[in-house]
């Protein structure tokens, strides 16, 4: 049986906790509260769970709402999800770098020994930069997470310079890749977050579920008791006793958790401070043949796009038989003429004629990630006012791990406040 319902009346009874929003944070919070014995209802404004982590079906293609990847090393992922059931398809470990009109493979030589030649000193970077980057990677991989979390914070660019990596190597090798991770191209994101993400890349694999990224929240929702999630149930405002839905239905609860995006959270919780956010646009094109054989990310040293890949080479189900689906992401919103410019750049990147490519869709994702300048708290309390809580990646880090961990923290703090349980 499904955990979701479109029938508002099925969920009008009073709950211990009402969660507003069925994204990753809200689903994780509900999961932990239910496991602790509380009654929980989840009100979701849209027609499906997932928040920004959704997949649309169009003409046989799977279209994630903005390019997304799934990292298997995150602790919250390993705790909550059945990875085998997601039927994960991996990207190659590394990326292709477009620089000076040529593609060069940049890969972890321990996973792809044949790519080690590209890491010879002088080809991608001087020997001293490669040694500095190797030392940084070793430390991020082997040090306890606690040590990484409690380092003094600064920008990622500053941290790389302090590690001994030259500006030239940062700009031509690391910045093209990290811009797609942070959704900003100046590397002003918190170094604490960078070190944790860098560690996750080394220790895990970047993948896509066979059925699209939306399979992740669907699995979380499917583990909840039937009827827990009420879809198409937008909340108009919070009340003294719970929340009032847009259709006039009242949902009573001892505690309310706002697990929406930052703007919607600020609308429901007066006085809530929310961070600035990053915007990204992803274009999807169909090609008759795959322009790249490998399931790998391609990034641009010229910063004309964040990344591009042939999604159907990663997970064949993303495109109907005989077609290939190409995803390309750029910073900021769509604008007139931008796609035509991009197709010209993609022709250079893939070494093929992109004129016959068919546009399938373009998604501009506002609030795609929180901006995370230093000093950035990797986690912050979810308590807003008595009985009112807020969680989401904007309260932690802009990642699947951050969203799930924020939801878990909300559950711990609610349990402490409602039942006197000890927070962990």
Describe the structure.
With 424 residues, the protein is of the alpha/beta class. Helices cover 31% and strands 25% of the residues. β12 and β13 form a beta hairpin. α1 packs parallel to α13. About 1% of the residues have low confidence.
Q: From the helix content, strand content and strand pairing, which structural class follows?
A: alpha/beta
- Tell me about the largest β-sheet: 9 strands, mixed
Low-pLDDT regions? 7-11
- List the total number of helices: 13
Number of strands: 21
Strand content: 25-35%
Mass-distribution shape:
globular
The percent of residues in helical segments reads 25-40%
Distance between the termini: 32 Å
Provide key terms for this protein.
nine-stranded mixed sheet, 13 helices, globular, alpha/beta, about 425 residues, four-stranded antiparallel sheet
């Amino acid at each position: 049986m499904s955990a979701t319902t479109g029938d508002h009346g099925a969920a009008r009874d009073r709950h211990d906790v009402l969660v507003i929003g069925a994204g990753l944070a809200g689903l994780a919070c509900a999961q932990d509260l239910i496991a602790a014995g509380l009654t929980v209802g989840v009100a979701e404004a849209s027609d499906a769970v997932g928040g920004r982590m959704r997949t649309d079906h169009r003409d046989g293609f799977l279209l994630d709402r903005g390019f997304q990847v799934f990292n298997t090393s995150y602790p919250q992922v390993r705790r909550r999800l059945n990875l085998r059931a997601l039927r994960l398809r991996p990207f190659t470990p590394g990326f292709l770098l477009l620089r000076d009109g040529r593609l060069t493979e940049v890969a972890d030589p321990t996973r792809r020994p044949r790519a080690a030649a590209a890491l010879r000193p002088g080809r991608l970077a001087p020997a001293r930069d490669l040694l500095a980057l190797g030392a940084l990677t070793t430390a991020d991989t082997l040090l306890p997470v606690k040590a990484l979390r409690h380092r003094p914070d600064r920008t990622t660019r500053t941290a790389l310079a302090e590690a001994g990596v030259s500006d030239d190597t940062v700009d031509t090798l690391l910045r093209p890749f990290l811009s797609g991770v942070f959704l900003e191209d100046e590397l002003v994101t918190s170094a604490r977050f960078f070190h944790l993400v860098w560690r996750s890349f080394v220790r895990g694999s970047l993948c896509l579920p066979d059925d699209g990224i939306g399979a992740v929240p669907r699995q979380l929702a499917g583990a909840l008791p039937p009827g827990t999630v009420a879809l198409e149930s937008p909340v108009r405002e919070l009340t003294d006793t719970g929340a009032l839905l847009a259709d006039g239905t009242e949902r009573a609860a001892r505690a309310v958790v706002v697990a929406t995006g930052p703007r919607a959270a600020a609308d429901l919780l007066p006085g809530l401070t929310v961070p600035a956010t990053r915007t990204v646009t992803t274009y999807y094109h169909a090609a008759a043949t795959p322009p790249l054989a490998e399931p790998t990310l391609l990034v641009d040293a010229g910063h004309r796009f964040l990344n591009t890949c042939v999604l159907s080479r990663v997970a064949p189900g993303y495109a109907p038989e005989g077609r290939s689906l190409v995803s390309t992401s750029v910073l900021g919103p769509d604008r007139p003429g931008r796609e035509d410019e991009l197709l010209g750049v993609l022709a250079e990147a893939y070494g093929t004629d992109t004129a016959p490519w068919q546009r399938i869709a373009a998604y501009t994702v506002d609030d795609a990630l929180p901006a995370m300048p230093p000093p950035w708290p990797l986690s912050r309390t979810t308590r807003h006012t008595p009985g009112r809580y807020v969680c989401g990646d904007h309260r932690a880090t802009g990642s699947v791990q951050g969203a799930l961990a924020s939801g878990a923290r909300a559950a711990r703090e609610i349990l402490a406040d409602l039942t006197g349980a000890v927070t962990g």
